[in-house]
Amino acid sequence: MDNVFVQLICTIQYRVVKENADDAFYELQNPQQQIQAYVFDVVRAIVPRMNLDDLFEQKNDVAKAVLEELEKVMADYGYSIEHILMVDIIPDAAVRKAMNDINAAQRLQLASVYKGEAEKILMVKKAEAEAEAKYLSGVGIAKQRQAITDGLRENILNFSHSVSGTSAKEVMDLIMVTQYFDTIKELGDGSKNTTVFIPHGPGHVKDISNQIRDGMMQASSSNV
């Protein structure tokens, strides 16, 4: 029905029935040629009614139909048809090329779908990993700031209890000065340090302390 030429290759197993050996010997001069002719007749009667795809899918049904027809015909000549196997179906060269092109196009299309799905999964996993990393980074920064705040609070309380007459502001100023000098020392001790010009003097230290205190007060007021 597809109007294409195909070549069918099949193998046929047959034997002479012992009881009908005389018929097998005298009735047919060339049994192979006779069997081949009957096979051609059956195939030409069945295959033209089928599409090419159906022929590939139902080749066993074709072999069964040929077997049933041969059994009825060849029994009269003393032969028993044991088995028929449809070995191969070979379409015309142009048809084979077209089928291969279609198959290749389908595989390329399927491969592109799988590739797109894989890229989509990678993007989703990457986004999830980035979100998780940002969340953990935020948690770490929050804990770090909380630890710094707790440490400053503990230092202020300990110093106020140890040295009578000192206020929390004075203790905070002293801590700021200490951290300021520690920072300058770290800048100078760096293995890849460069020249850094920092205003250095008591007045500048006081300005830094005031700026930090003002920032903390503004942050506290914004959270209220």
From TrEMBL:
Name under which the protein is recorded: Band 7 domain-containing protein
Keyword Lipoprotein: yes
Organism: Urochloa decumbens
UniProt cross-references to InterPro entries, sorted A to Z: Band7/mec-2_domain (IPR050710), Band_7 (IPR001107), Band_7/SPFH_dom_sf (IPR036013)
Protein origin, superkingdom: Eukaryota
Keyword Lipoprotein appears in the UniProt entry: yes
This protein's UniProt keywords: Lipoprotein
Occurrences of domain Band (ranges): 2-120
SUPFAM superfamilies, per the entry: Band 7/SPFH domain
